[in-house]
Amino acid sequence: MGSEVSTGAGRKARGRDERRQAILDGAFAVFARRGYAQTCVQEVAQEAGVAKPTVYNHLADKESLYREAVEAAADRVGARSLAVVEGLREVAPDADLREGLRAAGRGLLQACHDEEARAVHRLASAEAARFPDLETSARERTALRIRSALADRLARLVLAGRLRPCEPELAAEHFLALLTGPLVYRPDAEPDALARAAAEVFLRAYGPG
Amino acid sequence: MGSEVSTGAGRKARGRDERRQAILDGAFAVFARRGYAQTCVQEVAQEAGVAKPTVYNHLADKESLYREAVEAAADRVGARSLAVVEGLREVAPDADLREGLRAAGRGLLQACHDEEARAVHRLASAEAARFPDLETSARERTALRIRSALADRLARLVLAGRLRPCEPELAAEHFLALLTGPLVYRPDAEPDALARAAAEVFLRAYGPG
DNA sequence: TCTGAATTGAACGTACTGGTTCAGAAATTT
DNA sequence: AAATTTCTGAACCAGTACGTTCAATTCAGA
């Protein structure tokens, strides 16, 4: 029972878990570019390099396929973004805070606003009617985790006197809003310019009095 | 030709345009709660109080139905939001700017983040695969219009010395981001608290030196 | 090499829905 | 009141895709 260790050269997904992952990855890719209804299970199987009955061997039905694929992708995005925020841990007490925030902003734009991340949000909210809980589930795995981690970092910066006293959660929301908000109006804006502007404005509002 | 004047007591949509509007309204309502694929034309007809062939009499096919319904709703949302922003025109030179921004923020949250507005954005991005241009079309009718109008108001405030010199478009993006960004993390946040925080932070960043 | 499990390709039944057609009813106009 | 247009209800056709079944084949492990 369980999955056996992959002995081969890994040309194809061997163990059971790996094959399952391959199917979920393929499913996410197809769902992302076609949407739920337009996607037929046959196409998912093709994308995963597998036969249709095999898909149903690993996942109960199309709905499970969707839910699991989106949640797995959300976990990936969350993990990536979290790593970026953790980078803020290493701002030396005498380093330029603006530069640190700017770097974090750049990283966050790459991590939580790349193609995969946007697809996660789109897919989660698109089928909110069919999967009422998927939207909140995805939010928890991505946005809420990121805010929480960022709030931790900001709280330490407040204690260090580098930011004015404030509610860390709200400040985190504001930084992330300043960073990603403009993308609504300019989807192809330069990440560097966005990060610069966000750090600048955030520090004017939240920098030490 | 064209639509005749509605003579009856309006119990039902009489003129041709009115009936068309009734169909589009019904379509938007059903699409909003079911999504595109889950919606069958029969249900739209029922919601509009009309027979299925009548729907096809007024609109070519299901795709037109979707596109036109979403765009009409986007226009409504845009018009509502624009009216709110125009309210900023009347901030007296000696009035409390923070209070004016706060009021505008409250109004904008009602106008461009109510049920209908959120449905517009969801429907536009959900079917971006099928309707590549609908997403940008909806964005132009709502977000871009709002930003433009708000930038106009902010530019005047800069000239009046009530805001520091800045790029009005960017400042508008930042105000809107501060206002609506937190909703990503707290969908049920108090509009009043959001508007207060947004105005507060915005003025710390963009208020006169 | 042998055994059992997993995978494959194909086909099948079923259900749903988009878009159309048609004859009759209703309503509006003349 | 007669005529014309529009709406209605029902039925119909075609296409599509889900989920399943099955025999044949491949693969993993002993």
From TrEMBL, chains A, B:
Residue ranges flagged as DNA-binding region? 40-59
Q: Origin, by domain of life?
A: Bacteria
Q: Which residues form a coiled coil?
A: none
Q: Which intervals hold domain HTH tetR-type?
A: 17-77
Q: Which UniProt keywords apply?
A: DNA-binding
Write down the InterPro entries for this protein, in alphabetical order: Homeodomain-like_sf, HTH-type_TetR-like_transc_reg, HTH_TetR, Tet_transcr_reg_TetR-rel_C_sf, TetR_C_Proteobacteria
Query: What's the protein called, per UniProt?
Result: TetR/AcrR family transcriptional regulator
Q: Which organism is it from?
A: Kitasatospora putterlickiae
